[in-house]
Amino acid sequence: METQERNPHQKAMELLQTQLNRGVLPHAHLFIGPEGVGRADAARSIARAVFCTEKASDSCGICRACKAFASGNHPDYHEFARPEGRQSLPIGSIRSLQLEASRKPVMGNQRVFVIRDAESMSLEAANCFLKTLEEPPGECYIILIASALRDLPETIVSRCQVTKLTCLRPETVKQRLCEQGVDAPDAAWLAARSWGSPEKAGTFHAQKLHAINRNLVEKLVSMRMEENFAMSDYLQSCARKMGENASEQRMATQELLECVAMIYRDLAALINDPGAGVFNEHCRDELARCAGDWELDAALECADRALVALERIGANVNRRLVLDQLFSDLPLF
Hints:
By secondary structure, this protein is α/β, with parallel strands linked by helices. The protein folds into 2 domains: 10-164, P-loop containing nucleotide triphosphate hydrolases (Rossmann fold, 3-Layer(aba) Sandwich), CATH 3.40.50; 207-332. The protein is 54% helix and 8% strand. It has a 5-stranded parallel sheet, sandwiched between helices. β2, α4 and β3 (111-115) form a beta-alpha-beta unit. The longest helix is centred in the last third of the chain and has 27 residues, at 246-272. It is elongated. The termini are far apart.
């Protein structure tokens, strides 16, 4: 059995399994936790246990229901998520869920519905969903997945049993990455940058975000006005490589801008105290060499402007315009 550190969800999942075995598992659940910590996997684990006909201590993996679930073909399991290119989960998705929930199970006695991106549910959709959450039809389990309680209406939260899923310690994620052959300095940065999420750390590694970040350090601390559009082009090129579609590229641009903000925050920390701890520890020497040429307020202002640009990208403002403006402003400080 894995240790608690290697499986931070173990106690939460054991509690849910115990409730299921005793026949007291509530029909509405809310899994809360940062993206990339295994929220969907946890929801699927509960669904698999619900469907298993052996009902031992967990899903058996060999009964007809378990095999159907493992193949992705269980007829009584449904996932809903925010449609590609949409900013919110529309009421149409909730009505589709309600229609499915009103039908009888095909294989067993229960049906399970998982709603990812629950925090993106429109107010209209949330209001439409309340009665279904409060009185699910038949033997029906509903699991919502969201990042934080504050992102959901209290009316939704109050109708669910809340399960909080946490991240691993960065040191543990670093160890896992090193075991996979990642260099220790890069593994440490990826673990911290992913906030302890193994999934995000793996994604960032595949996207080579650690290498891009190193280039950003070199480029940003000595950027001149005439390089502003080249920097904008560089970030857009990186985002295109990191994401396959417009939505993924928008998210990649936000991740890159967070890197930019962290670099300037590190610079400000070293200006204020040469011995300060920094996020980009592996780039400390490069940042320290530049610290004497910068004013503290200028470095902080650059960090803040990068965060404003990140928010504007999240609001779906044209990426080219946002980046061009940002990198036209930064060399002025």
